Amino acid sequence: MIRTTLLLLVLFASTIAAAPPSGGPNQQQQQAPAAPAPPPLAPMPAETGATPSPDPALLARAKAAFAQLQSGKIDRTLLSSEMNAALTDDKLAAVKGAIGNLGTPVSFEQQRAGTQGDVRYAVYLVTFLNGPRLNFLFGVDPQGKVAGMRLLPTQ
Predict the structure, then answer these.
(1) What's the CATH code of the domain at 101?
(2) Are 55 and 122 a contacting pair, CB within 8 Å?
(3) How much of the chain, in percent, has pLDDT values that exceed 70?
(4) How large is the greatest C-alpha to C-alpha distance in the chain, in angstroms?
(5) What is the reported pTM?
(6) Secondary structure of residue 62 in the 3-state scheme
(7) What's the gap between Cα 52 and its chain centre?
(8) Average confidence (pLDDT) over 145-153
């Protein structure tokens, strides 16, 4: 079984940065050995009331992007230029190594959603058949390009 600390693989574009769901912007995070240190994290916008209902289109895109990350083959035409530059082949291979053998997720449950700058995002709790769970932040820009993806261990 993969330890959740190994699942802390961070992929993001400069247009979206978010604190982990249970931590603040100053929380220290362990990185996979090959991953460079991320830039400082911006705090999440203040939560205002209940989490909005899941957007079926955003959820479908998040599931498809997650499956591509698991396979190690991503359609780069769907990524913003910043995300495309941030998601190097080495990082994609590292993500595949960490989550590729977990199998198809049995659930994608939205934990929260919102906007940061001009990026619309949602955080999903992804659960696998054998029990592993992780949070997947997925964001799109106004042009519909994937502007951010982040995998975080659950607390």
Answers:
(1) 3.10.450.590
(2) yes
(3) 67
(4) 39
(5) 0.71
(6) helix
(7) 18
(8) 95
